[in-house]
Queue: 4 jobs
Job 1
Amino acid sequence: MGWQDVKEKFLSLSGEQKSPNCETLENIPTWKTYASIKKATLPAKKQTLSDIVIDNSKNEILAEKISIYIGDITHLEVDAIVNAANKSLLGGGGVDGAIHRGAGKYLLAECKTLGGCETGEAKITGSYQLPSKYIIHTVGPVGEKPGYLRNCYENSLKLALENNLRSIAFPCISTGIYHYPNEAAAHIAAGVVRKKLEEHADKFDRVIFCLFLDIDTNIYESILQSYFPLK
């Protein structure tokens, strides 16, 4: 059986059928709920980047459109998870390696047909054995290159829109071995997501920032108070 047939087989299954212990969207609190629960322990608010202009009339609805999730992105039952891939798309370390291991060998077979991926671009595959439906692979920049990192988030969200995917989870792109400063990267991520949701709130049910390190949790808890204000 080729990867095309296996892909269709897995796309016909729910996330819980593929992975009974997966994390469903219903069990992941929205930012509004999360911030309310943790109100007493949230870190001090940090302001948005100076070039981000927020449409405050949309604050209430957008606070219900995003989430912080602390854990393993491969456990999420969403329409798409984003893979912080390398240019070959053939697997690697960190999140990339975990996604390839979890999805199984047919992911590699499909990725071999894509001809790699340039920095800032994004490409989509099935997710096979993972509870998500699809994987959007994007290649982050090495070092602090805001234009390329912004493209990673914008092109991933563009693919989600083009494929009618209503829920998507992002890891912290480029902040690991690619050495993008964590806080600067988080501002890019939050800013792009904010503006895209202002334009297409009706097209998304949830955008999830999937975090693993305490430093990233602290950063996102502080900056989301400005990018997605609750008052």
Note: The chain is about 40% helix and 15% strand.
Job 2
Amino acid sequence: MSIGMKDVEHVANLARLELSVDEKEQFVGQLNAILKYAEKLGELDTDGVEPTSHVLPVTNVMREDVVKESLSNEAALLNAPDDEDGQFKVPAVLE
């Protein structure tokens, strides 16, 4: 598989990019080099290699979900600049 000038022009059009002829030729060369490298990686013997999503064994570290007493409404509003009817009062943002 190789990338041609039409492919680069199509992708540039989708990305709404205006490329000069020199830039298009440069991208054709660079993209073909990337594809050539990917094909070379396909030659590797990966039999017996377990698929992974990360190079290191990563696990989630979770704490136990323990029910705790929450703040009372009065304590939550203690440092509020303004409150009304047991709720934070903030300036209106919609007219």
Note: The two ends are 58 Å apart (CA to CA).
Job 3
Amino acid sequence: MKLAKREDFESFDFERNTRIPAMCFADNPMPDDTKHRLTVQIFTVKVAGLDGDLQWPLMCLGMVAVRDKLEYSRNVIFNHTRDNCQTLTQQDPYLVLVGPTRVVVYNGYVYFEAMLKVKGSTESEDTDLSLVFERFLCCEKINLCVSFG
């Protein structure tokens, strides 16, 4: 939290990815004024269903990120471009996660952001799959979580 309060983290930019490193104090002892915090661990992200004219299989591209109160910048967990799409099928609708970049700190809530598209023949023919920005609240007891939009 001290790192997030430094001057270069004060100005908020919605498009910025987190700049806090993944492993602070991995080689040296933690300073005396540090505290343990609750964290969120994301295991899977699933495309649960399709609307409109979309059909399986999908060539999926885009980004999924998590934001926390530590600095609110994007902590990317999925990121694929048109040149590097992931194929999703009805039997395997799970995104292959590449993150988070650093630990997701749970301090009352976190935000999930998803901007996913299905690849078309050309970039102009790409179709929106998911455009979401949702707050996730948890009661802090195992298996008793609920999300609020």
Note: Residues 37-48+55-148 form one domain.
Job 4
Amino acid sequence: MRIGKGYDVHRLVEGRDLILGGVKVPYEKGLLGHSDSDVLLHAICDALLGAAGLGDIGEHFPDSDPQYKGISSLLLLAHCVVLVGLKGYEVVNIDATLLAEAPKISPYKAAMRENIAEVLCLDSGDVNIKATTTEGLGPVGRGEGMAALCVALLKETDEA
């Protein structure tokens, strides 16, 4: 078994869609970045890569590479699953936390879990998503951005 943790943060800006867990969430702002800037999926990618000893998301999908401009982070996550598999591991479960003052994500959590579980070849019950505010403290608390944390558990594949 291997455990990895992931963290990501993005600034909120006007003129971009807010994509979280592969779901377009209605909101007046979106996250700024090179890809679709899905902070939740980026934290999951980093947790998976870390657990497998494969570095971080920036090493595999640099923002200097035009092929990743505007790309869906679900595709980045799928590539991370392939990399983890090539290293001889499979995903057991994911536990992720979104830090944001707004919007409320409760209505979208089930769809996020389904998206993530499908890419990771898991049951949706093996993907946990939580959300919390920072009680108005710091950049996230002021509504300037969002952050996400994730812990991932991997196990050796039967073929390993």
Note: The helical segments are 39-51, 57-60, 73-86, 109-120, 138-141.
